[in-house]
């Protein structure tokens, strides 16, 4: 009871001043990561890209992303999360703009790789920042709100990019869409305090209570067991989760990057309308993400809440990709229903990990699962669709293969049999958002 009273006494000011700024920062990040999807048809024509070239250009982002993602664990504590994210905003804004200036395939590969390298530290730094401002009882909600930026960024990318492409070229699209990162760098530096003590909008007594709680939690965390990487690698559940997460990431990124190209081939819609239509699955994904997190918490169940939606994604993707080459309405109905399930697995995979394993294993497991799955899924998914499209001339086979991967991924997650049930550990709730 005393803890609850202390939580209430800390207040809600932080939610208003911090969460919207962080939410929009990461929305811009995800937007700049996937906006290449709508530009691929015209870019492929201008730069003489094969489908395999286009898929590689989209996926190479994740090689750069993995390098700096792994390095963020060193950078964020040493230089501070605020400074690392500020630097990332400036750099990725520059490379996003630079993508609009490329003149050939090799320049495009370099820009996409450097964009990934610039965005890589943002996840870990944001997680660290929120853990410094929100106590254990608040973190699940804070990270859940942050998690919504993924479908929001994807949803906004289509209509905005489509509008720009309707009246201009892909060169202008990348330049315009890269500018918000620089604008947000200024807002980020002004709005995000370096520490609790420097928050002018937080009353002195509330600062003291918050810092006392955060310090006490850090002492408790430091007293726990150290991460045990070798023991983690011997856990079958870790490999099943990594396999399942890698396969469903292939589906998510392969589908998202190539959806506009598929819609253009299946219809006579203008690029502006394709941008609007391609946003529908992600609009449904926002609703689905809210529904599944509430249901999972209410039933205290993670495995089926993550695995069954992954199977549904695969089934609906297969149906949508085999309805008919030019049946745009039924195709989009299937894809929009699929979108409802599209991000359900993301927060639950890592919550499930924290409940399956003791803290000394869960911390390295989440880094291992997230890092590998992002590289494998984010790189292989777009490239594989591009290669298969080049072989067959359409995306039906490619989406069908992704559908099988989604079903297999769900089955791998469902196959996990917990040795024991554990309450979600507060200090690990930081990973509910997943590694994106």
TrEMBL record:
Keywords attached to this entry: Membrane, Transmembrane, Transmembrane helix, Transport
PANTHER family, per the entry: PERMEASE-RELATED (PTHR43791), SUGAR TRANSPORTER (PTHR43791:SF100)
InterPro entries, per the entry: MFS, MFS_dom, MFS_trans_sf, Sugar_P_transporter
Organism, scientific name: Acidiphilium rubrum
Localisation per UniProt entry: Membrane
Protein name: Sugar phosphate permease
Recorded topology in the membrane: Multi-pass membrane protein
Native organism taxonomy: Bacteria, Pseudomonadati, Pseudomonadota, Alphaproteobacteria, Acetobacterales
Gene Ontology cellular component list: plasma membrane
Residues of the Major facilitator superfamily (MFS) profile domain: 18-421
Transmembrane regions listed in the UniProt entry: 12-31, 51-72, 84-103, 109-130, 142-164, 170-189, 237-259, 271-292, 304-325, 331-350, 362-385, 397-416
Superkingdom of the source species: Bacteria
Example GO molecular function: transmembrane transporter activity
A Pfam family of this chain: MFS_1
């Amino acid at each position: 009871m005393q803890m609850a009273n202390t939580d209430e006494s800390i207040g809600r000011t932080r939610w208003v001043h911090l969460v919207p700024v962080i939410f929009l920062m990461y929305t811009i990040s995800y937007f700049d990561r996937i906006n290449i999807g709508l530009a691929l048809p015209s870019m492929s024509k201008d730069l003489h890209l094969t489908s395999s070239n286009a898929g590689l250009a989209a996926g190479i982002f994740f090689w750069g992303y993995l390098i700096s993602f792994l390095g963020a664990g060193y950078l964020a504590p040493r230089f501070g999360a605020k400074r690392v994210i500020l630097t990332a905003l400036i750099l990725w804004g520059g490379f996003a703009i630079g993508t609009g200036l490329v003149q050939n395939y090799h320049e495009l590969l370099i820009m996409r790789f450097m964009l990934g390298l610039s965005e890589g530290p943002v996840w870990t730094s944001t997680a660290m920042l929120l853990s410094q401002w929100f106590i254990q009882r608040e973190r699940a909600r804070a990270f859940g709100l942050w998690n919504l930026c993924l479908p929001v960024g994807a949803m906004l990318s289509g209509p905005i990019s489509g509008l720009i492409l309707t009246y201009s070229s892909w060169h202008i699209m990348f330049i315009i869409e890269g500018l918000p990162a620089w604008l947000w760098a200024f807002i980020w530096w002004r709005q995000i305090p370096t520490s609790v003590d420097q928050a002018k909008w937080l009353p002195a007594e509330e600062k003291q209570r918050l810092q006392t709680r955060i310090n006490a939690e850090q002492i408790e965390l430091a007293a726990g067991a150290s991460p045990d990487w070798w023991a983690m690698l011997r856990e079958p559940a870790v490999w099943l989760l990594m396999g399942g997460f890698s396969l469903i990431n292939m589906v998510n990124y392969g589908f998202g990057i190539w959806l506009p190209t598929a819609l253009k081939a299946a219809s006579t819609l203008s690029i502006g309308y394709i941008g609007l239509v391609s946003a529908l699955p992600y609009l449904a994904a926002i609703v689905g993400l809210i529904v599944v997190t509430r249901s999972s918490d209410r039933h205290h169940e993670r495995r089926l809440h993550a695995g069954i939606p992954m199977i549904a994604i695969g089934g609906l993707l297969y149906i949508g990709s085999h309805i008919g080459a030019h049946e745009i309405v039924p195709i989009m109905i299937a894809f929009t229903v699929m979108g409802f399930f599209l991000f359900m697995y993301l927060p639950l995979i890592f919550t499930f990990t924290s409940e399956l394993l003791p803290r000394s294993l869960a911390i390295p497991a989440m880094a291992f699962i997230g890092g590998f799955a992002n590289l494998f899924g984010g790189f292989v998914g777009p490239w594989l669709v591009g290669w298969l499209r080049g072989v067959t001339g359409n995306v039906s086979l490619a989406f069908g293969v992704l559908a099988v991967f989604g079903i297999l991924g769900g089955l791998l997650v469902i196959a996990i049999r917990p040795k024991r049930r554990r309450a979600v550990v507060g200090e690990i709730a930081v990973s509910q958002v997943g590694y994106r």
